[in-house]
Specification:
Length: 226
């Protein structure tokens, strides 16, 4: 591996053995080769942004994405999120529409979801990298094993977590969430192809906060920082 992977929080100890496993070393060799020879998203230094921004002990909500956005300047290591100066993608636009209708907040001015991550919302893609303009190009290379490990570790957490599983890829992870303390909220994906078939009106944001408050946890402020 190019550099020792360092998350800067309790994920370091929790994932210490995982990142030494043969499959992960092979994965990182593949990823580093891809960065050298192709345009890959997100930037290498943003690969593990989700884990760096949301320590294990702070996770209250998990939103599962698929692979990163595959167009230039969009992906920055958090699922569904884009940097502030980038046009809001269609799936995130639909997420915002549901937010506005569900809890009555003002439609956000940008698509950067870091303020959620800092409150304990783990914005986890199940695949961490992708080639430019080639969606799903890094699937089945090992990232799924790594993200499954993360979900399995969170499943053991004593503090209740809300899992937002949007779309079939996310729902496929439900079998890893066996702890009865946790809450699973499922819906179709918020993409324009499916949002009208059950994402709109799901009220997952208010339901998440209701669950957190019921368990004496601080609710999420879903309003995006300006």
């Amino acid at each position: 591996m190019k550099n020792k992977i360092h998350f800067g929080n309790d994920w370091d100890q929790l994932l210490e053995e995982e990142i030494e496993k043969p499959y992960f070393r092979k994965l990182m060799k593949f990823v580093e080769h891809e960065y050298r020879h192709h345009k890959i998203y997100p930037d290498y230094d943003q690969l593990f942004s989700a884990l760096k921004l949301t320590p294990f002990h702070h996770v209250k909500v998990v939103i599962l994405g698929q692979d990163p956005y595959h167009q230039e300047n969009q992906a920055h290591g958090l699922c569904f999120s884009v940097p502030r100066d980038v046009k809001i993608p269609k799936s995130l636009h639909n997420i915002y529409l549901e937010l506005v209708n569900d809890i009555g907040i003002e439609y956000p001015k940008h698509g950067n979801l870091i303020s959620w991550a800092k409150q304990g919302v783990l914005l986890l893609n199940t695949v961490f990298t992708v080639r430019d303009s080639q969606p799903t190009s890094h699937r089945n290379k090992g990232w799924e094993v790594f993200s499954n490990t993360i979900i399995s570790l969170l499943n053991k957490k004593r503090q209740p977590i809300v899992y937002l599983l949007w779309g079939n890829d996310a729902k496929n992870k439900e079998s890893l969430i066996t702890n009865q303390k946790h809450c699973i909220l499922k819906s179709v994906h918020p993409s324009p192809l499916s949002a009208y078939r059950g994402f709109f009106g799901c009220k997952h944001f208010s339901e998440t906060n209701d669950f957190l408050k019921k368990h004496h946890l601080e609710p999420i402020n879903w309003q995006i920082e300006k």
